[in-house]
Structure to design on (98 residues):
């Protein structure tokens, strides 16, 4: 219904080349082929939606990137803190035994 794999690829990548295939006849004497005006409206909607989707994906990637960076920093901070605590406990044990 979308017109083949190239149309699906164009739709998913959002490069504005997607043109919906006209709908075939529904019954005897009745067709639902979109008019030229409807085709332009569909094209405009698809382009606007694609631009919005790409902006949303970039925002989402930025947010998840910040979460990943925060997670790495928290992990490294915790690791350094545990190493410091371990060395302090060894020092206090040595002082206590001496």
């Amino acid at each position: 219904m979308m017109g083949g794999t190239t149309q699906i690829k164009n739709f998913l990548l959002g490069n504005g080349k997607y043109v919906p295939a006209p709908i075939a006849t529904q019954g005897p004497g009745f067709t639902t082929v979109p008019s030229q005006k409807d085709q332009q409206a569909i094209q405009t909607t698809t382009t606007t939606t694609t631009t919005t989707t790409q902006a949303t994906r970039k925002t989402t990637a930025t947010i998840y990137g910040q979460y990943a960076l925060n997670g790495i920093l928290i992990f490294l901070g915790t690791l350094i803190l545990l190493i410091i605590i371990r060395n302090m406990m060894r020092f206090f044990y040595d002082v206590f035994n001496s």
Q: What stands out?
A: Residues 5-97 form one domain. The radius of gyration is 30 Å. The longest helix spans residues 36-97. DSSP finds two helices and no strands in the chain.
